[in-house]
């Protein structure tokens, strides 16, 4: 780690980071967990590390490890180094912003204190006299340290009583801000790690803000090799299913600071929800609730007369080290091994709160998911035995309408994938009522098992064989793409060379580059996209996002894409069906017309949909939406036809949609002929 150029992940098995790299342990008693309670702070100490937390506020001001007196940024005030925070707003508010609340406890308590473990609590009780000025929650923030454990845990218990006012709750998280002169290398995945710019490089003196504040062009960075790159924290977002470990490496001495999340059960929106990870600061985050990549639809809204309680975490902050001169990238390999160990240990058996359910208080569910996709052939339901749903996502979420799991944040969710035979099992499910949900790559729509499933301690629920019949009225006449809820299968352009992030050059996640929405008008300077069924290739000829065309510095124009296709004949008595699966939408309105570009009104309009902001935030999807458009036969003709897809909202550059999949179905096939006696 002599230079700041991007390095590939070290593929060698990481040497297990030992706890006595430079840590002095004077005798066996040093291995006990100790609490040093002072007037204004408490120190958790297990001989490997010492964590200093303000009392009674509960903010982390110091993490001492491996001979370094504090891994956190001492240039910041003590309350601005490690903390829990949230965003809330009054009931009836719109959007995803509100009051920023850095949580500070008013009471400190020791919950557990023995040689093996310490657990401490920082609580803040809602004061009804502060209605409208204080979030109506009781909050209990816990920290845990274990013997011989190179790190510490934290979890939070949030409670809203029935008689308290309603409010909106867009976000809560844990934030750690590390020393900028120590931690320069960041890792989010094997193929997403690099040396990072300094926070100074984002200042007006050294950086140029781009289309939104998060994106900054580095014009005069401290380290010249970063010059000309774009820095944006959203370039390092990650889906929950892949967001289990991320963090920072210090080169000398080789030290890692890692955030490990062993379970997704307490996060918003299921496995595909995207969250922030680590970014320039150096900052590392543990996100629990957020509206990113979904907008207001993802805001948790607690109503009047609605009691609610939820446990967020525990999550683990893991520290590792190597002897001076060792390859620091082995710290990442070790962190992944530690993550796997934490996942294997979930649910933990050491949190003291009764609100965190241990393994013996949880339940189990299993079953087999089959699919029957009717109507592909001439006659319906002939020899159409259901087949196993391979690689399907199956999950438990609080009861709700079909597909609402992707915006659900009040309760807990538990997800898995089916095996090649369609079998699935989910263990360690918290007690309560759930719907069983599923979606299958390769098929449109969502499945919901209608009976509510009640999970009780120790239960073993077997739903046996369940069958998903995805939406279909008739056989497929043509299709564009493959239904997997993302736009990744479509054409993603290279970025403007003036606005690159070197990490994503020749990278499968090239969609994370800045400014790709501007490339559309460069690729289609005069006319909008035209796609011809049977001739065009969606991988090359279907731009990944239908965005607006820039007319001048302050004016934008909506775009109309065309799908051209031939029909040998048209069934005059039938109705055709157009399926439009969207991977994301942002303040967009999609209108559908058939064979008449200026038809008024349009055959179909979505209305204004979406606040996902995935186009700006370098996502390849946001929330999934599926629309079914009936196409009367009298709108179609034998020979060449054209479907016009118009995105009509055009007040800025970041409005638009990404498609997941488009399909035209013919009229329903006739019923099979009846058998004669």
TrEMBL record:
Name of a matching Pfam family: fn3_3
Record keywords, A-Z: Lyase, Secreted, Signal
Cellular location(s): Secreted
Family annotation (SUPFAM superfamilies): Galactose mutarotase-like, Galactose-binding domain-like, Starch-binding domain-like
The Rhamnogalacturonan lyase domain, residue ranges: 389-462, 476-664
One Gene Ontology term from the biological process aspect of the record: carbohydrate metabolic process
CDD domains: RGL4_C (cd10317), RGL4_M (cd10316), RGL4_N (cd10320)
EC id: 4.2.2.23
Catalyzed reactions: Endotype eliminative cleavage of L-alpha-rhamnopyranosyl-(1->4)-alpha-D-galactopyranosyluronic acid bonds of rhamnogalacturonan I domains in ramified hairy regions of pectin leaving L-rhamnopyranose at the reducing end and 4-deoxy-4,5-unsaturated D-galactopyranosyluronic acid at the non-reducing end
A GO CC term attached to the entry: extracellular region
Keyword Lyase set for record: yes
Keyword flag Secreted: yes
GO MF annotations in UniProt: carbohydrate binding; rhamnogalacturonan endolyase activity
PANTHER family, per database record: RHAMNOGALACTURONAN ENDOLYASE, RHAMNOGALACTURONATE LYASE FAMILY PROTEIN
Family: Belongs to the polysaccharide lyase 4 family.
Protein name: rhamnogalacturonan endolyase
Source organism phylogeny: Eukaryota, Viridiplantae, Streptophyta, Embryophyta, Tracheophyta
Gene: LOC116202670
């Amino acid at each position: 780690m002599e230079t700041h150029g991007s390095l590939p992940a070290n593929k060698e098995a990481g040497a297990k980071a030992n706890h006595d790299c430079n840590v002095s342990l004077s005798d066996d008693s040093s291995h006990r967990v100790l609490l040093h309670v002072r007037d204004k702070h408490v120190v958790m100490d297990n001989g490997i590390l010492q964590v200093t937390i303000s009392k009674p506020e509960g903010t982390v001001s110091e993490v001492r490890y491996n001979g370094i007196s504090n891994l956190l940024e001492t240039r910041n005030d003590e309350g601005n180094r490690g903390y829990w925070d949230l965003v809330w707003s009054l009931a009836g508010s719109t959007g995803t912003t509100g009051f920023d609340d850095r949580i500070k406890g008013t009471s400190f308590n020791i919950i557990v204190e023995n040689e093996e473990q310490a657990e401490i609590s920082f609580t803040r009780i809602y004061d009804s006299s502060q209605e409208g000025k204080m979030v109506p929650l009781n909050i209990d923030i816990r920290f845990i340290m274990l013997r011989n454990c190179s790190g510490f845990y934290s979890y939070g218990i949030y409670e809203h009583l029935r008689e308290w006012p309603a409010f909106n709750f867009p976000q809560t998280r844990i934030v750690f801000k590390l020393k900028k002169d120590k931690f320069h290398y960041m890792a989010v995945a094997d193929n997403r790690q690099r040396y990072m710019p300094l926070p100074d490089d984002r200042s007006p003196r050294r950086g140029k803000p781009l289309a939104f504040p998060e994106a900054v062009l580095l014009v005069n960075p401290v380290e010249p090799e970063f010059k000309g790159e774009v820095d944006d924290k959203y370039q390092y977002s990650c889906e929950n299913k892949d967001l289990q470990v991320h963090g920072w490496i210090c080169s000398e001495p080789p030290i890692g600071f890692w955030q490990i999340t062993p379970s997704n059960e307490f996060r918003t929106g299921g496995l595909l929800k995207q969250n922030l990870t680590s970014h320039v600061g150096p900052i590392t985050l543990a996100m629990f609730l957020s509206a990113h990549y979904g907008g207001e639809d993802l805001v948790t809204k607690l109503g009047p007369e609605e009691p609610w309680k939820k446990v967020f975490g525990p999550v683990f902050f893991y520290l590792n080290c190597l002897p001076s001169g060792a390859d620091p990238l082995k710290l990442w390999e070790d962190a992944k091994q530690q993550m796997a160990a934490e996942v294997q240990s979930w649910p933990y058996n050491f949190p003291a709160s009764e609100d965190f359910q241990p393994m013996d208080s949880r339940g189990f569910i299993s079953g087999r998911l089959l699919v029957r996709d009717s109507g592909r052939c001439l006659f319906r339901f002939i020899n159409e035995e259901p087949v196993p749903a391979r690689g399907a996502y199956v999950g438990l979420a609080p009861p709700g309408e079909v597909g609402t799991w992707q915006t659900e944040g009040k309760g807990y969710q538990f997800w898995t994938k089916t095996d090649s035979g369609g079998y699935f099992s989910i263990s360690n499910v918290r007690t309560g009522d759930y719907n069983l949900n599923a979606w299958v790559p390769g098929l449109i729509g969502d499945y919901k098992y209608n009976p509510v499933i009640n999970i009780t301690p120790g239960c073993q629920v077997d739903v046996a064989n369940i069958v998903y019949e995805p939406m279909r009225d008739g056989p497929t006449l043509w299709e564009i793409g493959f239904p997997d809820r993302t736009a990744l299968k479509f054409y993603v352009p290279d970025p403007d060379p003036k606005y690159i992030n070197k990490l994503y050059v020749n990278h499968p996640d090239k969609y994370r580059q800045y400014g790709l929405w501007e490339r559309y008008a460069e690729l289609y300077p005069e006319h909008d996209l035209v796609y011809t069924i049977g001739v065009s290739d969606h991988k090359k000829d279907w731009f990944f996002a239908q965005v607006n065309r820039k007319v001048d510095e302050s004016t934008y124009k909506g775009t109309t894409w065309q799908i051209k296709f031939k029909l040998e004949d048209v069934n005059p008595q039938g109705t055709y069906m157009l399926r439009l699966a969207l991977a994301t939408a942002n303040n967009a309105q999609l209108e559908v017309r058939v064979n008449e570009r200026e038809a008024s009104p349009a055959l179909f309009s979505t209305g204004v949909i979406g606040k996902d902001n995935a186009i700006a935030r370098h996502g390849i999807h946001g929330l999934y939406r599926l629309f079914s458009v009936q196409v009367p036969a009298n709108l179609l003709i034998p020979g060449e036809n054209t479907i016009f897809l118009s995105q009509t909202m055009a007040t800025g550059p970041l409005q638009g949609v990404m498609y997941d999949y488009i399909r035209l179905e013919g009229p329903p096939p006739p019923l099979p002929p009846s058998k004669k006696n």
